[in-house]
Amino acid sequence: MNAPQPLSQDKTQHPGDDPYLAVTHEVFNQPTALENYNLFAQDRALQEAIDREGAGAATGDLKQFGALAGAAETIELGFRANENKPVFNTHDRFGHRIDQVDFHPAYHQLMSIAMENGLHSSPWTNPGTGAHVARAAKYYMHSQVEAAHCCPITMTFAAIPSIRKQPELAAIWENKILANSYDPRNLPDGEKQSVTIGMAMTEKQGGSDVRANTTRAYPIGAEGPGQAYELVGHKWFVSAPMCDAFLVLAQTKSGLSCFLMPRWRPDGSKNPWQVQRLKNKMGNIANASSEAELRGALAWMVGEEGRGVPTIIEMVAMTRFDCMIGSSAGMRQALAQASHHCHHRSAFGNRLSDQPLMQNVLADLALESEAALAYTMRIARSLDSQHLEHERLLARLATPVGKYWICKRVPNHAYESMECIGGSGVMEDCIMPRLLRESPVNAIWEGSGNVQCLDTLRALHKEPDTLDAFFSEAAEARGSDARFDRFLAQLQNDFADISDFEYRARNLVDRLALLMQASLLLRNSDPAVADAFCASRLEHKGGLNYGNLPSGTDPAAIIKRATPVVE
Ligand SMILES: Cc1cc2nc3c(=O)[nH]c(=O)nc-3n(C[C@H](O)[C@H](O)[C@H](O)COP(=O)(O)OP(=O)(O)OC[C@H]3O[C@@H](n4cnc5c(N)ncnc54)[C@H](O)[C@@H]3O)c2cc1C
């Protein structure tokens, strides 16, 4: 038999190639992977926000965390955790009910990073100037790596204000909730030094309208706050069902009340709340979400009987804030991917990021991302200063406005960023499909868009001063841009009559958000960013897609500011 002949005879041109393989082409004009970069050091807008909002002292810590979040190994964890869906097992091999969800080790590693770095705890363990801001910055970076596991991190973080309403329960649980370590074992909380907390409100027939919940709570002995009850009913959505305990809403004879329900009973037996199945989600894959039935599950009442919503709303307010951080992070990561790609890719003879039409798109995406971050970090400062009346009023109104607006801006931003990358952006080995699939989730959970608008309306009715606080804060930019001044005056005028507010709520809330974002950018950002934001968002000229910045704006400056540099 003849020996196989090399397909290419031209060995002088390809001296290093295997002579038995055809040399078909050279790979060029492809970007390097966006990895091994510092998510803090390569994010100018984030660094400026940290200084501005009072967390400058955390810069060193944040820089360290930014390097960890940008390391190739950490980024890889995000991919692994999403390629391997959580698996639910009702029973062990001997037939005992266990309600066990098994995750890929990458998920556990991400959880460890988050908890060891205090993403669930730091503003409670070290409160004060910059505490929420610094924690938000870490969450913003970590969520860019992988967003889904941030759900239990958020819920654990957010549970503290609600649990503190019942001091004897807080005395048992708080130290373990705030421990900076992660213990995923399916054991009674008494045997663990650190725990995670979930929330179970949503039912099939109720959803947003939790007053329609049918799950009932039966007192075991004495009734009232801090007392033990048994819960019977169901929950249609319970994310992170491996949490060690959950804040649950259930009806008593006095109405909807809030309860703390552990996974295990204190006697070491399994608490009879049973996971029925895991949700088959389009995104948020690494995070398990479940349906559950409560079959006499032991739980203790938190807060006043019949005041379940005001009790759990303390937790919900915090989760809504985290939705703003997570959505801002999603836009930042999409923008980083798009701008990095276009910086390293040429078409028709020129670098993509130097071509006018692509510059318009990229700069527009960058404005959206920076405006979201600026708004979120301003609210983080408010959370650090709740003892000040202005900050309390501002956070009350600005949280539903921001949760509505920022979360809603993400899906189209993710899609446009994907398109900047072209066909490779659609492939599963790129992070973009994950960012796109994750993008609607923050808008829908923790109170969907319309519910946020209605909450804005509720805040205006109950505390009209919230609107004054919002406008007075925004008006600090008055006089710096004529377009801003006109927008502010028109919006104030439109709020003079809120008789059909419910019907017009989206329009008014949209404009409140734009007003605050413009004000923050005018006061604090690069003039090119502020100018283009006002030109494209405050004076509507009809174009609805990204890439609608008018002539005269400076896209190159905006893109340069936003593009991460990989050494
Ligand atoms: C991935 C995922 C995980 C989740 N995890 C949890 C969890 O851990 N714990 C938990 O309790 N819940 C969880 N949820 C549930 C989530 O909070 C609810 O889906 C959400 O609150 C909306 O409720 P619903 O799905 O019943 O929709 P509905 O309440 O039926 O709302 C449907 C639509 O109607 C709108 N709407 C409602 N009321 C009004 C009104 N008065 N006027 C105008 N429009 C209105 C809403 O904005 C929404 O757009 C999760 C959801 C998802 C998608």
From TrEMBL:
Residues spanning the signal sequence: none
Lineage top rank: taxon: Bacteria
Entry annotated with the keyword Metal-binding: no
Domain Acyl-CoA oxidase/dehydrogenase middle: 198-294
All copies of domain Acyl-CoA dehydrogenase/oxidase C-terminal, residue ranges: 306-460
Family recorded in the similarity comment: Belongs to the acyl-CoA dehydrogenase family.
Name recorded for this polypeptide: Isovaleryl-CoA dehydrogenase
